[in-house]
Write a structure and sequence with these properties.
This protein is α/β, with parallel strands linked by helices and 157 residues long. 41% of the residues lie in helices and 22% in strands. Strands 2-1-4-3-5 form a five-stranded parallel beta sheet. β1, α1 (14-27) and β2 form a beta-alpha-beta unit.
Length: 157
Amino acid sequence: MNIKLIAVGKTDHKELEHLIQDYIKRLGFYIKFTFDLIPDIKNAKNLSEIQQKDKEGKLILSKISNADIMILLDENGKLYDSVGFSKLLQKHMNSGIKQLIFIIGGPYGFSKDVYNRANGKLSLSKMTFSHQMIRLFFIEQLYRGFTILRNEPYHHR
Protein backbone atom coordinates (compact mmCIF):
# COMPACT_ATOMS: atom_id res chain seq x y z
CA MET A 1 0.00 0.00 0.00
CA ASN A 2 1.10 3.54 -0.73
CA ILE A 3 0.20 6.49 1.45
CA LYS A 4 -0.03 9.97 0.01
CA LEU A 5 -0.60 13.29 1.72
CA ILE A 6 -1.99 16.07 -0.45
CA ALA A 7 -1.93 19.63 0.89
CA VAL A 8 -2.92 22.98 -0.59
CA GLY A 9 -0.19 25.64 -0.61
CA LYS A 10 3.52 25.49 0.02
CA THR A 11 5.24 25.37 3.40
CA ASP A 12 6.67 28.84 4.01
CA HIS A 13 8.75 28.11 7.10
CA LYS A 14 12.11 26.46 6.46
CA GLU A 15 12.16 25.02 9.97
CA LEU A 16 8.84 23.25 9.44
CA GLU A 17 9.92 22.03 6.02
CA HIS A 18 13.11 20.60 7.51
CA LEU A 19 11.15 18.69 10.18
CA ILE A 20 8.60 17.47 7.63
CA GLN A 21 11.40 16.15 5.41
CA ASP A 22 12.98 14.40 8.41
CA TYR A 23 9.77 12.49 9.15
CA ILE A 24 9.20 11.71 5.47
CA LYS A 25 12.66 10.14 5.40
CA ARG A 26 11.87 8.11 8.52
CA LEU A 27 8.57 6.92 7.02
CA GLY A 28 10.49 5.50 4.07
CA PHE A 29 11.64 2.63 6.30
CA TYR A 30 8.02 1.49 6.73
CA ILE A 31 5.97 2.37 3.67
CA LYS A 32 5.99 4.16 0.35
CA PHE A 33 4.93 7.71 1.20
CA THR A 34 4.55 10.75 -1.00
CA PHE A 35 3.75 14.34 -0.12
CA ASP A 36 2.06 16.23 -2.92
CA LEU A 37 1.57 20.00 -2.75
CA ILE A 38 -1.10 21.79 -4.73
CA PRO A 39 -0.05 25.37 -5.48
CA ASP A 40 -1.96 28.24 -3.94
CA ILE A 41 -4.78 29.49 -6.14
CA LYS A 42 -3.71 32.57 -8.10
CA ASN A 43 -5.69 35.75 -7.45
CA ALA A 44 -7.46 34.10 -4.52
CA LYS A 45 -8.15 37.54 -3.03
CA ASN A 46 -10.57 38.15 -5.90
CA LEU A 47 -12.49 34.92 -5.23
CA SER A 48 -15.21 34.15 -2.72
CA GLU A 49 -14.57 31.37 -0.19
CA ILE A 50 -16.79 29.02 -2.20
CA GLN A 51 -15.00 29.83 -5.47
CA GLN A 52 -11.63 29.25 -3.84
CA LYS A 53 -12.75 25.93 -2.33
CA ASP A 54 -14.18 24.84 -5.69
CA LYS A 55 -10.93 25.62 -7.55
CA GLU A 56 -8.85 23.83 -4.90
CA GLY A 57 -11.34 20.94 -4.95
CA LYS A 58 -10.94 20.43 -8.69
CA LEU A 59 -7.16 20.31 -8.28
CA ILE A 60 -7.43 17.85 -5.37
CA LEU A 61 -9.84 15.57 -7.22
CA SER A 62 -7.60 15.58 -10.30
CA LYS A 63 -4.99 13.75 -8.20
CA ILE A 64 -7.36 11.00 -7.00
CA SER A 65 -8.28 7.80 -8.82
CA ASN A 66 -11.51 5.88 -8.34
CA ALA A 67 -9.67 3.08 -6.52
CA ASP A 68 -8.02 5.40 -3.96
CA ILE A 69 -9.29 5.65 -0.42
CA MET A 70 -9.44 9.35 0.44
CA ILE A 71 -9.56 10.64 4.02
CA LEU A 72 -9.93 14.33 4.76
CA LEU A 73 -8.14 15.97 7.66
CA ASP A 74 -11.12 17.90 8.94
CA GLU A 75 -12.02 19.52 12.24
CA ASN A 76 -15.29 17.54 12.26
CA GLY A 77 -13.57 14.23 11.59
CA LYS A 78 -13.18 11.26 13.89
CA LEU A 79 -10.67 11.65 16.71
CA TYR A 80 -8.18 8.85 17.38
CA ASP A 81 -5.43 8.44 19.90
CA SER A 82 -2.10 7.32 18.42
CA VAL A 83 -2.75 3.61 19.03
CA GLY A 84 -6.20 3.87 17.49
CA PHE A 85 -4.74 5.64 14.47
CA SER A 86 -2.15 2.87 14.06
CA LYS A 87 -5.01 0.33 14.07
CA LEU A 88 -6.75 2.35 11.33
CA LEU A 89 -3.57 2.21 9.25
CA GLN A 90 -3.34 -1.56 9.80
CA LYS A 91 -6.98 -2.01 8.81
CA HIS A 92 -6.37 -0.21 5.51
CA MET A 93 -3.17 -2.16 4.85
CA ASN A 94 -5.04 -5.43 5.46
CA SER A 95 -7.85 -4.40 3.11
CA GLY A 96 -5.66 -4.71 0.03
CA ILE A 97 -6.09 -1.16 -1.24
CA LYS A 98 -3.27 0.22 -3.33
CA GLN A 99 -3.34 3.83 -2.19
CA LEU A 100 -4.55 5.63 0.92
CA ILE A 101 -4.69 9.39 0.49
CA PHE A 102 -5.01 11.98 3.24
CA ILE A 103 -5.94 15.53 2.29
CA ILE A 104 -5.23 18.85 4.02
CA GLY A 105 -7.42 21.51 2.45
CA GLY A 106 -6.87 25.20 1.97
CA PRO A 107 -7.68 27.98 4.44
CA TYR A 108 -11.46 27.58 4.02
CA GLY A 109 -11.62 23.80 4.02
CA PHE A 110 -13.02 21.61 1.27
CA SER A 111 -15.52 21.97 -1.55
CA LYS A 112 -18.76 19.99 -1.58
CA ASP A 113 -17.37 17.79 -4.36
CA VAL A 114 -14.35 16.85 -2.22
CA TYR A 115 -16.58 16.05 0.77
CA ASN A 116 -18.80 13.93 -1.47
CA ARG A 117 -15.82 11.93 -2.81
CA ALA A 118 -14.21 11.39 0.60
CA ASN A 119 -14.25 7.97 2.21
CA GLY A 120 -13.84 9.44 5.69
CA LYS A 121 -12.78 12.36 7.84
CA LEU A 122 -10.06 12.44 10.48
CA SER A 123 -9.41 15.12 13.09
CA LEU A 124 -6.06 15.42 14.81
CA SER A 125 -7.38 17.62 17.61
CA LYS A 126 -10.31 19.72 18.73
CA MET A 127 -7.89 22.64 18.57
CA THR A 128 -7.24 24.58 15.38
CA PHE A 129 -3.74 24.50 13.89
CA SER A 130 -2.29 26.29 10.90
CA HIS A 131 -2.37 24.37 7.63
CA GLN A 132 1.41 24.36 7.68
CA MET A 133 1.76 22.98 11.20
CA ILE A 134 -0.81 20.24 10.65
CA ARG A 135 1.39 18.78 7.91
CA LEU A 136 4.18 18.16 10.38
CA PHE A 137 1.82 16.86 13.07
CA PHE A 138 0.14 14.46 10.66
CA ILE A 139 3.36 13.08 9.16
CA GLU A 140 4.77 12.62 12.66
CA GLN A 141 1.63 10.70 13.63
CA LEU A 142 1.99 8.48 10.56
CA TYR A 143 5.54 7.71 11.62
CA ARG A 144 4.40 7.10 15.19
CA GLY A 145 1.64 4.80 13.93
CA PHE A 146 4.11 2.59 12.11
CA THR A 147 6.46 2.45 15.10
CA ILE A 148 3.47 1.34 17.21
CA LEU A 149 2.60 -1.38 14.69
CA ARG A 150 6.21 -2.62 14.88
CA ASN A 151 6.37 -2.36 18.69
CA GLU A 152 9.30 0.01 18.45
CA PRO A 153 10.20 2.25 21.40
CA TYR A 154 9.40 5.62 19.75
CA HIS A 155 5.89 5.57 21.24
CA HIS A 156 5.98 5.04 25.00
CA ARG A 157 2.86 3.40 26.36
